[in-house]
Amino acid sequence: MDDSRISRHGSGARLWLAGGWLLLALLAAIFAPLVAPQDPLAQDLMFERLPPFWMSGAEPGFWLGTDSLGRDLLSRLIFGARIAFVVAFAAALAACLVGSTLGLIAGYFGGWADRIISRIVDVWMAFPPVLFAILLVAVLGTGLSSVIIAIAVIDWTRFCRVIRAETMGQARMDYVENARIAGYGRIGIMLREVLPNVVPSIVALLSLEMGIAVIVEAILSFVNLSISTDDPTWGGIIAEGRLSIHQAWWVLVFPLVTLILTVLSFSQFGEGLKARFDPVLR
Amino acid sequence: MNASACLDISNLSAVLPNGARVLRSVSLSVQPGEVRALVGESGAGKTMIGKAVLGVLSPSVRIVEGDMLLEGEDLGRLQPKARRTLIGARTALIPQDPLTALNPSRRIGPQMTDRLVRILGWSGQRADVRIRQLLDEVQIRDPNRVLKCYPHELSGGMRQRVLIAAAFAAEPRLIVADEPTTALDVTVQKQILRLIAQLQREHGTAILFVTHDLGVVAKISQKVSVLYAGKVVEEAETAALFAAPQHPYTRALMAATPRYTDPFASLKPVDEAVLAGLAAEIAAADQAWRRPHG
Ligand SMILES: Nc1ncnc2c1ncn2[C@@H]1O[C@H](COP(=O)(O)OP(=O)(O)OP(=O)(O)O)[C@@H](O)[C@H]1O
Ligand SMILES: [Mg+2]
Q: Does residue A48 lie in a domain region?
């Protein structure tokens, strides 16, 4: 997290670039039915494996080409963004809420609370995350909500660890002691004095976590453990694209690029926001 | 015991988890409106006494005996909540490091008024007027700007002025000033010291003034306690102490204090013989203390 302190001057450009891409993707997801050129589910064997627009053999209206069932790739990516963003927001928020709360409590109160919470985190992190996710979804059953729950259940520890450490640093500062002398209650100090100082880190982590949620969702879709409807998902498209890589590379490459851009943007956006938010860095 | 004192500490002893005694039957009192200097070298336990009074000792430091009376109220006998309320209403701290003593993520204005509004129940407007009045007293000429600043946007001297204003704002009876000028550069030190002295006089606030600098002691205090290894080795009126220091350690400390006229010649460490005498004195005191306390 700390590299933002060094590279604060670069934070403007990356904040805007990353934010721009995310906004574009988000708007496309929200208005998918309006902006998608084709029905993402419509199959047409006449149009199977059309190449992207600049190659010979491309058809107008199918900008990024079609897959082996003749479905429009761009439209599928746009509709896939819907699930990606829903999972990103819901899972990251849930993980953030649980992890940050516990991290704040552990870091601020220390003692027994800290020992118990830290031990749980240690045990939790002993599981390999992807395996953990697959296991959880297998138990919970496939579907959007189990994907979200699985990601939140696995990744709250990231928030907990970082926020705990930051809170501990803040709790040692004299302003906390000053607040205690003034007569503020412990919980009041935690929420009003300490919390605002860890918010920039929470924001950065939240954004990073959204990117991670997008990846995990894609992985789960890839192994066919995500949502079970026909709705396109980025991971699902990648899985299909892999099968026809020799005949239609674009079906694999475009969703991969989209995924990577989105994930990178989330993490850069978070770092940029943190640098922007933090009054000491500003 | 002295019922009329603003602060009356008697026989205060504290130990660390390893059993080491860090405060050795400390007794000292601060009369209303008086400045009591607490002087001693680094590690003597000055900060610890201040923290004990303000109720913010670290949990690893345990008070094993002694009483602390704040305006006649026995802090040790109060319920924690009542103690917090009493300390919050009657005391304030002027800290050593004015940067970390201010919340970095909150603007100065809300940070200063918050305490008046939330702890003392003042209206926001009354608190605002009060804060501006105090900022004027600490000679901050552009309060509108300062109130909107984040702490890191102010200089060290300005931050300390803000903290002095905040300390006096709620009209506490007792202020603990823990080396309030140590973190500042020399020219600013003098201004800050003068400000504290001036506000102290005008508000009639008692101050427990922690310092390791005898020059500061002479300038600001009426009474002084000399602390060594958690033990008060000498206590006197400031003028009397400088005129005729009784304890060898006090004399050694004075000899070790650099003078502007001859800054290097007099910079000598405390004499070996004096230290040996002190060690014996403290060992004897601990011996006497252990007998009744097992
Ligand atoms: N929380 C703590 N746990 C253990 N030991 C402590 C703790 N706080 C202070 N001490 C020890 O107690 C002694 C007194 O410390 P204190 O901070 O009161 O000294 P001081 O007189 O204020 O010194 P300085 O001039 O450096 O501020 C020191 O030896 C210190 O190492
Ligand atoms: Mg100290």
A: no
